Amino acid sequence: MPPAKKKQKKQQGITAALFGGEQQKKEAVHRTYKGKRILLKAADIYGRNKVPEGEEDFNFLYVVTDIDDDTFASIEYEGRYIKDGADNWRSYPAVDESDFVMDNYRLACFKDDHLLYNKYLGVVKKKENDAAQKAADKLAEEAKSSLDNIDDLRDKIMADSKVDKFELLKDEFEAIRELITYISDSGKDAGKQAQKQLWSEFMLNCLL
């Protein structure tokens, strides 16, 4: 191969490697930052000594939407904030476009701002999980109590065949519909007045 062509091919390889490396680097930066959430303190948004009264302990929620280069990014406000030391997000819609989008966010601040977001995300999730566990424990306790009551009713019914089952049930359970009085038209009780009551499916299954 002539020397000129060898040199040209080598140059093409170097150029491809450089451009390929730059593209891979850009893609890696986008994967690192894009779509990630951060919390910005009120002083970061308004500037020191310019924070509106009552917002001094606000942390505003933003998401990284685009990467301009290795230094700056575009972020969008998600309409929520959380107070220092709080455990719940609060709504605070943006007033205008300038409050909603920030095009000059410095990526050098990302690590600390993302850590702050993760800190409060963990706090909020813990509160939600604790509430869910408390509700589950309450349901389990109620179910256990209901089973205990059913066992007691079964024991009373088995111990005395003449016990008034309706009286037992209406004292322990809430009926689904009103008590129905009717005249039996068949069987040994034909012509006699009787009463019928619909109870919950759960209770009937347990008593059967």
Element layout with pairings:
Layout: H1 3-33, E1 37-41, H2 42-46, E2 58-67, E3 72-83, E4 90-91, H3 97-100, E5 101-106, H4 110-159, H5 165-172, E6 180-183, E7 193-196, H6 201-207
Antiparallel strand pairs: 1-2, 2-3, 3-4, 3-5, 6-7
Q: Domains counted in the coordinates: how many?
A: 3
- Over the alpha carbons, how many angstroms does the gyration radius reach? 35 Å
Helical amount among residues, as a percent range? 40-55%
**Residue-averaged pLDDT, rounded?**
77
What class would the helix/strand composition place it in?
Answer: alpha+beta
Percentage of β-strand residues: 15-25%
Shape: rod-shaped
Strand/helix succession: HEHEEEHEHHEEH
Largest sheet: 5 strands, antiparallel
The oligomeric status of these chains comes to: single chain
Residue stretches low in confidence (pLDDT < 50, at least 5 long) are 201-208
Short description:
The protein is of the alpha+beta class and 208 residues long.
Description:
It is built from six helices and seven strands, in the order H-E-H-E-E-E-H-E-H-H-E-E-H. By secondary structure, the chain is an alpha+beta fold. It has three domains: about 1-35; about 35-160, no CATH class; about 165-208, no CATH class. The strands form two sheets. Strands 1, 2, 3, 4 and 5 form a five-stranded antiparallel sheet that branches. A hairpin with a 6-residue loop joins strand 3 (about 70-85) and strand 4.
